[in-house]
Amino acid sequence: MAKHEHVRVAVIGSGFGGLGAAVRLRREGITDFVVLERADSVGGTWRDNDYPGCACDVPSHLYSFSFAPNPDWPRTFSGQRHIRAYLEHVTDTFGIRPHLRLNHEVTRTTWNADELRWDIETSRGTFSADVVVSATGPLSDPRIPDIPGLDGFTGKVFHSARWDHDYDLTGKRVAVVGTGASAIQIVPAIQPRVARLTLFQRTPPWVMPRVDRPISAPERWLHRQLPFTTAARRGILWGIRELQVSAFTKRPDELGLVERLAKANITRAVKDPALRAKLTPSYRLGCKRILLSNAYYPALTRPNVDVVASGLKEIRGNTVVAADGTESEVDAIVFGTGFHVTDMPIAERVVGADGSTLAERWKNGMEALRGATAAGFPNFMTIIGPNTGLGNSSMILMIESQLNYMADYLRQLDALGGRAALAVRPGAVDGWNRRVQSRMQRTVWKAGGCDSWYLDANGRNTTLWPGTTYAFRRETRTVDLSEYEVLRAPVPAAASAAGSRTKEAVQ
């Protein structure tokens, strides 16, 4: 076990959010911090998700930090390998390695009211910190549904985010469960080499063509020689997506034209009317995440693929049984069933001022002021917290906005002087959440007629931001101290008595 270490800031996680926080801390002149990472390398979701075909559905130049532009992206939409390499590059370029504590899984972090600090237990030792920044992200802990009979399945089982590269799917009968962003990349990647692929689809996704191409050598040269061209490219990509936001958040009916284009995409790729009917959604486009692929529909038309338009109900030996009674013998099951998004496991490990965990505080739904601070958890911040997700743009934009808020939060603590903490007022959290949820009612995610992972168990959308990234940037530019209570370390009784005697002597 490592010895105890106290730092000013402890960052949990080393994906985009955690590395971004680390870079921002150094740029603010703060070097007394650690990044606690449970794995043996950085990268977050882009380290864990290395399944066949894994790639990003946001353009490369927008899916990168504004302070770390990459002129050498090889494609307009980059694959997992290149994104992970980019994060390693950021780690080295900004001197983050000395702050990394790899293989340190946070098992518990508890607020110490007497010392105004967080006491942190990890798998490799203990730490304490004045401020904790949780950047574990919502796509870090895979969710596998509780399927009757799964324990008795004698074949291979794994989640898309925990791909078993030692298991060769060649010539195997494979069931893929789920039709989300991971599944539509996995299916065309493995279809040519498996004997048979059975896809279990509860709800068909809307899939648009992926306008992807290699970025030419002259383009990359231009971006290297004239950096402003990289910034301009990023700005154009950002602006286009900002203009799309109102259709998602205020006027979902405007998405009708895009729906017609999506249906034309299905018709062009799928000639069989019965299969086409299975693959055509009945809800408004945008209600669930819009997916991008040129290979998904063609793969589903191949002779060795079966699309079961029903969820997986149970498993009997090596037979997978759908809710509609369809049965298939398989050798392997790949779950593309998403993550614990609205019930993040890290919340069970954070104990606040009143002794309750963040998970207990969020049992009726996640809530945090400006997606960052939760009532009852002083000096604790989340990156990619509640209602900071996006349905059509780059999460890096939201992360950078939250880093602005984090930086000003630390400046405010400095200005207060001494040992101090900021505890967000419950009324501020409630007021913010009411405004967000009121705006949410008009969005396609709430009114589009679907059930998605954006919604929690109570049917509330606690994941997405119902506005533009520019609007969120304005909301997180600075910390409003009126929304917080300032906490001071309690004065020891002996010191208090000595102070009183000194005052009497002066009088």
From TrEMBL:
Essential cofactor(s): FAD
Assigned keywords, A-Z: FAD, Flavoprotein, Monooxygenase, NADP, Oxidoreductase
The keyword NADP appears for this protein: yes
GO molecular function: flavin adenine dinucleotide binding; N,N-dimethylaniline monooxygenase activity; NADP binding
Keyword Transmembrane: no
Domain of life: Bacteria
InterPro entries: FAD-bind_Monooxygenase_sf (IPR051209), FAD/NAD-bd_sf (IPR036188), Flavin_mOase-like (IPR020946)
Gene3D superfamilies, A to Z: FAD/NAD(P)-binding domain
Similarity comment text for this entry: Belongs to the FAD-binding monooxygenase family.
Function description: Catalyzes a Baeyer-Villiger oxidation reaction, i.e. the insertion of an oxygen atom into a carbon-carbon bond adjacent to a carbonyl, which converts ketones to esters or lactones using NADPH and/or NADH as an electron donor. Thus, can convert bicyclo[3.2.0]hept-2-en-6-one into the oxidative lactone products 2-oxabicyclo[3.3.0]oct-6-en-3-one and 3-oxabicyclo[3.3.0]oct-6-en-2-one. Is also able to catalyze the sulfoxidation of methyl phenyl sulfide (thioanisole).
Name of the protein this chain belongs to: Baeyer-Villiger monooxygenase
